[in-house]
Specification:
The structure is a homodimer of 549-residue chains. With 549 residues, the first copy, chain A, is of the alpha/beta class. The first copy, chain A, has 15 helices and 26 strands. In chain A, helix 5 crosses helix 11. At the A-B interface, helix 10, helix 12, helix 13, strand 24 and strand 25 of A face helix 10, helix 12, helix 13, strand 24 and strand 25 of B.
């Protein structure tokens, strides 16, 4: 009997391919890489966050998922683990120590037993898959990529990576291991494409230290450092500076406090107890003795930084003399919110330090030269660029071709596309599985589909208008005054003329349409819509309710 | 009698200070600089564009506006001229030749007589103001700044500028004139801050030519160049390349065609008739003989590029082999739309060329070294950074202090703040005038206020739900089944349980509340809102209509 085909399916929850989840499948056996969330685009109105679409997996009861293997502890890779566990409550989760700790914070205690600790360099077997995690550098410690031996050859998945030759935690890239995969023969390289449009080499994380040093040297008042809760190395750099310049360090925000506690416990953060202060007592310290870690570097309205910027924080306010460091880059789509936050902080008298003014942030992802290095180390037969929008993948593909990989061995798959691998070749199949978004809004998952978002789009743009009118059941005559409810369309109090025009249109229409109720409502809605458009050139949602009394 | 104070008031329609409009006022005499539009932020739902708030001017009938003086022909400086003319139909408009032509396109013929042609280096007098336009380089020809002699000293307003030593149109910066102002003594410099966070010197416009040359050399199929309609120098560079590589050039879009026609007529564009083709006949040419200019480089959904990307264009479609050049940078807030457009074009097989992949765009604004040069040439006593968000102004201020201007002579004003100038000093007063946004939506100006936008925000996030219920006038008993209309909240068809819960809550509430109608509706709305929140953790707008029958 012929061996089954191996199937590789990126199932991202975002415009980035395979960023949040990837499935590897061989016959009835499968493993899943990562389970992360993404933030909604600006036009995904009201959506809190996005998770990968699990329906391909849930609809295949014969498929045995032997493990969820995790590359690292950032939200876009672990943020949907709790949703995954809900859907697949028996699948073990494989993660390195720090990553495992961060996942535990997200899971209820009963599920902690699902987590299996792994170490870079120590392979483990999940049915037909032999998985070797290998150490990579990124902007959080304990990151791995995976070298996965399959019945059709070796797959190397880089995870998020950069080649940092001078990493904060001292753990250098494992060049030897990558080279050894190259010597054994890599069938398929799946590699991070995030910075494929950026020439050169991403600077080491340590290169932001001088900028931090300058800030600490010059600041006369409090310092606040805003970054992601999971950017552990930034927290380490800040702690080093706090120690050097004799400031007490305060961690604000539940998640960041949990993460710091955990990372210190397992020695991934080296912060002496003596320099940590109780955030509730920060006001009792002199400003020049204080450095605070805050969240909200993406301008998120509910985070500490945004509350401070808009004067909505309960305990604290920003005052002249404060120095605020934004140690992150805006994720595309967040620029406006980030810059608005910066402007508001400046308005309150703060000195705001951000890239490009000072290098207080570097990327955690490889640039073009590092991508070339990765390809030349692993010497793959095929490459499938992942982790990026299509434009990044295509650019990564060009780099691969420059490195000698034939164009027809560069595979561009989008989320939900099935890549097949057998002894003959690796190729994109024509099969597509549900690989799109699942929206999480409020307490519910997935009940907000495209139709609802489209309605929100219309409501956001032009609002709605409802006319409620009573008619005599026998004669069809209008009784009383049509009631009008409208929001988001125009300011009704200043629009008496328009309201009268609408009422006129309603009466006219009902005079000539005494037919059955359903039809009459449709005719009425159309007539009102027409009136509104000709008066205002806008198209609010229009509803007519005709009560027969 | 003491001389009146001179008042300088930035009245922008955007987060950028004084970008779209500035008022200079001395006693009862005033002049206005520029009247432009801005694009709405992502959370200004449904707004088409923003114009400056004219209400400060309209509410001061004693104020005589002697002229609207225009720096250059970009939309953020001339886009609201038609609104200005509507409000002040007798105020003459002073503009250089190309700018005047671009304004004419926007005004009805009867208003063309308002436009007075001016030339760089030729001063004119508007009551107490002696205005000398001086040539500056930017990304459209015929740009000027203004040196304005006032009773309290010389004000130099740079307009948008860069020091381009090798400009496409051959017209170099007028260093001598700027230096002469410095020698005469500049009281106040108002200078462009757009790129104050960028070190160095903005490259000349001509430095994009090699990237264009490479595109034309390598492209095997059609080339499309996307840029702003008013980026005349990009159109010139494209025309030069079309001529060099034997392609026919097609201008698409009404505005760009009008602008090209006008600029050619008055010799600001040098495009021989022979290389221009009729855009309606583009399909009859071989692909490698075609270059098209298209609009939509900011991802605007209604522009040609976005229609092509999403397959919504009536006559044309993008096919493999097409090369598309995005010759512009995303304006902050547009990144997501621009990148989505790029991804969609790539999906259709196009080769998309954009910065940073190739340098096909350079900024039209000065970087830090040019700002230093401007300050050192004009040697102002005071500086008021303009044209930028607060963060840019503050950075520009730091540069000014480095150049020797005392900190207390750096003036940061926001839109609507009044800067006073007399013989003693220039200073920010405590007076604030309406300096905010006026929204233009559909056919109407200004009737969309913050309240409507806030409603749209809520609707965009959680939608609405309306319950319509009939009750017996005498008994208060509910008649029939409550009708529910909802959009943007959840997908109703899949929500039978929730609908039943709502109906149950309605019946319960009305059973215990048989009081007067107004109060009863309020109680009902509150009860429904509570039910929805506890069931879904969302807060749609809720309305209850109780009909007594």
């Amino acid at each position: 009997m012929a061996r089954p085909t191996l199937r590789v399916i990126p199932l991202g929850g975002s415009g980035e391919v395979g960023k949040n989840m990837t499935v590897l499948e061989y016959g009835n056996d499968a493993i899943v890489i990562d389970s992360g969330i993404m933030f909604p685009a600006n036009d995904m109105h009201g959506v809190d966050y996005i998770i990968p679409d699990f329906s391909y997996l849930t609809q295949r009861p014969h498929l045995k998922i032997h493990g969820l293997i995790i590359t690292h502890g950032h939200e876009d890779h672990i943020g949907a683990v709790s949703h995954f566990v809900e859907a697949f409550p028996r699948v073990p989760i494989y993660a390195t120590r720090l990553t495992a700790g961060l996942i535990k914070v997200k899971l209820s205690t009963e599920h902690h037993a699902l987590i299996k600790m792994i170490n870079a360099g120590e392979p483990f077997t999940l049915s037909v898959f032999n998985v070797e995690p290998f150490h990579v550098c990124h902007s959080i410690p304990d990151c791995v990529g995976f070298a996965i031996d399959t019945p059709h050859g070796l797959i190397v998945h880089t995870g998020d990576y950069k080649f940092d030759n001078n990493p904060i935690d001292g753990k250098r890239p494992d060049y030897a291991r990558l080279a050894s995969y190259g010597q054994r023969g890599v069938r398929l390289l799946m590699a991070d494409s995030t910075n494929s449009d950026k020439p050169g080499w991403t600077p080491p994380e340590i290169t932001i230290e001088p900028a931090f040093d300058k800030v600490f040297q010059q600041a006369k008042g409090r310092i606040m450092v805003a970054t992601f809760a999971s950017l552990i190395s930034r927290i380490q750099i800040t702690a080093n500076m706090a120690q050097k310049y004799g400031r007490k360090m305060f961690i604000t925000g539940f998640t960041m406090r949990e993460y710091v506690k955990l990372a210190r416990e397992i020695n991934y953060l080296d912060i002496p107890e003596s320099i940590l202060g109780d955030a509730n007592k920060v006001s009792s310290y002199e400003p020049h003795k204080v450095v605070m870690m805050v969240t909200g570097s993406q301008g998120e309205p509910s985070a500490v930084l945004s509350k401070l910027a808009h004067g909505r924080h309960r305990q604290m306010e920003v005052v002249p003399g404060d120095t605020i460091v934004l140690s992150s880059h805006p994720i595309p789509g967040n620029e406006e919110m980030v810059y608005r936050t910066i402007n508001k902080l400046i308005e309150r008298g703060a000195n705001v330090v951000y890239d490009p003014l000072e290098r207080v942030h570097v990327s955690g992802h490889a640039c073009q030269e590092e991508m070339r290095l990765m390809i030349n180390l692993t010497k793959p037969e095929y490459i499938m660029p992942v982790h990026g929008e299509l434009r990044h993948l295509v650019q990564h593909g060009k780099i691969a071709v420059e490195c000698g990989i034939p164009q027809d061995k560069v595979i561009f798959a989008e989320n939900g596309m099935v890549v097949e691998m057998d002894k003959v070749s690796v190729r994109k199949s024509s099969e597509r599985v549900p690989g799109g978004y699942v929206f999480v809004d409020g307490s519910s998952v997935g009940d907000i589909g495209k139709a609802v978002i489209r309605d929100r789009e219309i409501l956001a743009s032009d609002g709605f208008l409802i006319v409620n009118v009573n008619v005599n059941k026998q004669t069809g005559d209008v009784l009383g005054r049509p009631e009008i409810i409208s929001r988001g369309f125009i300011y009704l109090r200043d629009s008496d003329d328009l309201l009268e025009t609408i009422r006129g249109a309603v009466l006219d229409t009902l005079k000539t349409n005494r037919s059955a109720n359903g039809k009459r409502q449709d005719v009425l809605q159309e007539s009102i819509s027409r009136t509104l458009y000709s008066e205002t050139k806008r198209r609010p949602m229009v509803f007519a309710v005709v009560n027969e009394v």
